[in-house]
Amino acid sequence: MKPKDELIRILNEELRCYRRLLEILGREKDAIVSFKPALLEEIAKNKDTLTLQLRLLEDERRRLVKELSRQYSTGTSLSELYDATGDREFLRIRSELVSLLQSIEELNEINRIFIDRATLHLKTSTAFLQSVSSFSGVKSTVSREV
User: Fold this and answer.
1) How far apart, in Å, are the Cα atoms of 129 and each of 124, 125, 126, 138, 139?
2) pTM above 0.90?
3) pLDDT over 70 for what percent of the chain?
4) Which of 77, 102, 136, 140 is in the most buried spot, having the most CB atoms within 10 Å?
5) Which residue, 104, 107, 105, 95, is CA-closest to 11?
């Protein structure tokens, strides 16, 4: 397979993985809101697996982009590869990647906010329960002494 065709195949695979990551982040948001720790653990494992797969695809993408940029004496961006090759797939993929990565960033930020709020709620609840339990311990000590 030619390096250009192989690069397009890798880029399409990356798109598929990023779509899957967006789906997983949506499930993560639902699990955070519903407070389902077991589901969150499963989702974390899925994200780890997908991240590893994306890392491998990214390494291969970089290798192929270097090869093509040398072959066509051009830069390494998808826009520059389009200019050099005339293959509109590079523009389509670039557009879809930008859109997907923005959506992932936004959803990831929403999940971070939800997690921060849940953590604050748990800390506040724990502190309240500790203060109530320490107060009841004082009350029982005083009532035994009287």
Assistant:
1) 9, 6, 5, 14, 15
2) no
3) 92
4) 77
5) 95
